[in-house]
UniProtKB/TrEMBL annotation:
The gene is ispE. This is 4-diphosphocytidyl-2-C-methyl-D-erythritol kinase. Pfam families: GHMP_kinases_C, GHMP_kinases_N. Residues 83-163 form the GHMP kinase N-terminal domain. Belongs to the GHMP kinase family. IspE subfamily. GO terms for biological process: isopentenyl diphosphate biosynthetic process, methylerythritol 4-phosphate pathway; terpenoid biosynthetic process. Catalyzes the phosphorylation of the position 2 hydroxy group of 4-diphosphocytidyl-2C-methyl-D-erythritol. It comes from the Bacteria. It is an enzyme of class 2 (transferase). The keyword Cytoplasm does not apply. The active site is at 26, 157. ATP binds at residues 115-125. It catalyses: 4-CDP-2-C-methyl-D-erythritol + ATP = 4-CDP-2-C-methyl-D-erythritol 2-phosphate + ADP + H(+). Its EC number is 2.7.1.148.
Amino acid sequence: MAAEAAAGTRAEARGGAAWSEPARAKVNLHLHVLGRRPDGLHLLDSLVVFPDIADLLEAEPARALSLSLDGPFGAGLSAGADNLVIAAAEALAARAAREGAQPAGAALRLVKRLPVASGIGGGSADAAAALRLLNRMWGLDYPRSVLAEIGLGLGADIPVCVHAPRALVMSGIGEVLSPAPALPRFWLVLANPGVATPTGAVFGRLAHRDGRAAAWAAEGYADAAALVAALAGTSNMLEAPAREVTPQVGATLDALAAAPGVLQARMSGSGATCFGLFAREKPALAAAQALREAGMWAEAGAVAPTPAPAPIR
Ligand SMILES: C[C@@](CO)(OP(=O)(O)O)[C@H](O)COP(=O)(O)OP(=O)(O)OC[C@H]1O[C@@H](n2ccc(N)nc2=O)[C@H](O)[C@@H]1O
Ligand SMILES: Nc1ncnc2c1ncn2[C@@H]1O[C@H](COP(=O)(O)OP(=O)(O)O)[C@@H](O)[C@H]1O
């Protein structure tokens, strides 16, 4: 598949690792909670996009599986079996072995640039990147739908991340994916106050589970202003409980909302990372710089246009 080959690269020619794959931040433009399953997991409705702000996963073929960590947020993470990259690699290898393949190992290196436990699915994006990369490197050739199924066993957010950078609507607990409406190119600034905010703790404080699925215009949205007008009828229902867990969410949202050129400021996922949505690059870059100078982690990145809805494979 041409698109898949282009998304990840063989980087030897550039002097890098043999194989590499970006792991983009997952941003929930809205997040409604529709109910709760008997097992306690919540039913969601969320429009998910992937700005060009990412961890990087690299790999070399090897006999065994190993992981080294790098980057500004690498130090706080385990490189063992509890790292979602290793868990995903093992799950993919197990599936392939059950189906008669004999995948070799991989020497993996994760450059961790996204803050951990921060509502932008960094761990899920890393796991999804591992599934995509090793699927190619090991010559398995599973379709993304199979990678998503393997990922779901490790985390509710992994299926949507398998399809990155394609914007999608996520429902169920995260396993039901449908096409997003057509979206324009726009810019996101992500800002995080530096306080890890565990997803389970936020869901544990949730008082309202009576949201409805958002309705999107069939013709989609031609520019950022039209998208923001549609988002006005939606919210992130995890914001109230996240503010209880991490009160700094309030100041983060205030700082983004005050940035010149911002059209919308909202929290992503279970927080504490918040996003500002911009129509143009220059004010987005300026806002990220100002937030960094104010002591937060902040990055700006473009979201590529989403074409008219097409089947998900
Ligand atoms: C809230 C979301 C929105 O995109 O993002 P994040 O804030 O994590 O980025 C996701 O649904 C998170 O997905 P993920 O981070 O993979 O969650 P998991 O590891 O599967 O679950 C962590 C914990 O969150 C709660 N959980 C998660 C997903 C879900 N649909 N209902 C839940 O109640 C459960 O308490 C679970 O034990
Ligand atoms: N590669 C990884 N990157 C980030 N977190 C990881 C990774 N592997 C395992 N984890 C664990 O997953 C949890 C969720 O992390 P993350 O996906 O960054 O946050 P969130 O679910 O809020 O978006 C963290 O508490 C962390 O310990």
